Structures are given as C-alpha cells and as structure tokens.
UniProtKB/TrEMBL annotation:
The keyword Ligase does not apply. It comes from the Bacteria. InterPro entries: BioY (IPR003784). The chain crosses the membrane at residues 12-31, 60-83, 89-105, 117-139, 151-172. Pfam families: BioY. Belongs to the BioY family. It is a multi-pass membrane protein. One of its GO terms (molecular function) is biotin transmembrane transporter activity. The lineage of its organism: Bacteria, Bacillati, Bacillota, Negativicutes, Selenomonadales. The keyword Membrane applies. It is found in: Cell membrane. PANTHER family: BIOTIN TRANSPORTER BIOY, BIOTIN TRANSPORTER BIOY-RELATED. This is Biotin transporter.
C-alpha cells in the first residue's frame, strides 16, 4: 500500500469520525428508552456508503476509541467506557459492524437501489441486532421488551436516514468517480 493511500485512509477516517460525533451532539431522549434519537446512524450509513471498507472501519474505530477514553463524542456529548458497556453499547458496536457491512456490500457500482438496500441492512438491521441484543442483556428486560423500546420507535426515522444516506452517497460517489479519487 502506498503512503498516499495511508494518508487518504486516515484523513477520511478522521473526517467521518468527526461527522459521527457531530451528528450525536443533539440527542433527543425518549421517555420509554435509554437510547436517544441522534443523527449518528445517518453518519454510519454515509461512512459505509461513501468510504472504502478500510476507511469506514477506521472512521468508526476512531470514533469508538475516542469515546472509550472519555472524549465526549457519544450521543449527547458523553464519553467513557461506561457508555460502551451500558445500555447503549450494543448500538455503538453495531455502528462498526454496520458501516463495514454497508461498505462491503455496496460494491464498486453506484447503483442507488443496491445502496438503499445495504443502508437498510447495515445501518438498521445490523445496528439494531447488536443494540437490541445488548440492551436486553445489560438491562435484563428480555428481547421482546428490548426490541419494543430499543428499535421499534426508531424505525421510521432510520428509514428516512437510509433514504438520505442513499441520495447523498450516490451523489458523492458519482463525483468521486468523476474525480478519480479514493
């Protein structure tokens, strides 16, 4: 791998780690759930939609490591390992898996229908699977209750985020292909 590719990977990783953090600044708590509504899932879908697998993984790992050491990058300007091992931790770890799945499955084409499908798969189904399983485990509320409070209320908003990520990702990828960069 060339030095240019390493620098490009780290620059994109830093930019998208910052985007994930910024989209978590506004966290809207729901009275029925310990998981707030944020724009971070949109950032995860954008990372997977636009970046290579390596870049997407680096961006989410950077975000997670910063948060784990206490930098307030998680939803609502929180940080620390306690957030990762708490009720929201599964969603955070799901962010990593989701971004990687999106980047892997989008392929080299810029097909909007394929991108929409992988955004739903990686950005919603994968993230929710990690999140709901972890939420149920940590709180002891059981899977049905964890799904009811940790996934169900978020589905409409996340479907909208998948639509936005698909539209933006397709447009950005088109421009990146024209510029011959990546």
């Amino acid at each position: 791998m060339s030095r240019k590719n390493n620098v490009t990977d780290f620059v994109y990783a830093a930019l998208f780690a910052a985007l994930i953090a910024v989209l978590g600044l506004v966290a809207i708590p729901l009275p029925i759930s310990p998981v707030p509504v944020t724009g971070q899932s949109l950032a995860i879908m954008l990372a997977g939609s636009i970046l290579t697998v390596r870049q997407a993984a680096y961006s989410v790992l950077t975000f997670l490591l910063l948060g784990a050491v206490g930098v307030p990058v998680f939803a609502g300007m929180t940080g620390g390992i306690g957030i990762i091992v708490g009720p929201r931790g599964g969603y955070l770890l799901g962010f990593l898996a989701g971004a990687i799945v999106i980047a892997l499955l989008k392929g080299q084409s810029n097909n909007k229908w394929r991108l929409a499908l992988v955004n739903v798969l990686g950005g919603i189904i994968i993230v929710y699977t990690f999140g709901v399983l972890w939420l149920g485990f940590v709180t002891g509320m059981g899977l049905e209750k964890a799904f009811t409070v940790g996934a169900l209320p978020y589905i409409p908003g996340d479907l909208f985020k998948a639509f936005v990520a698909t539209v933006v990702g397709t447009a950005v990828n088109r421009q990146l292909q024209k510029a011959g960069s990546r």
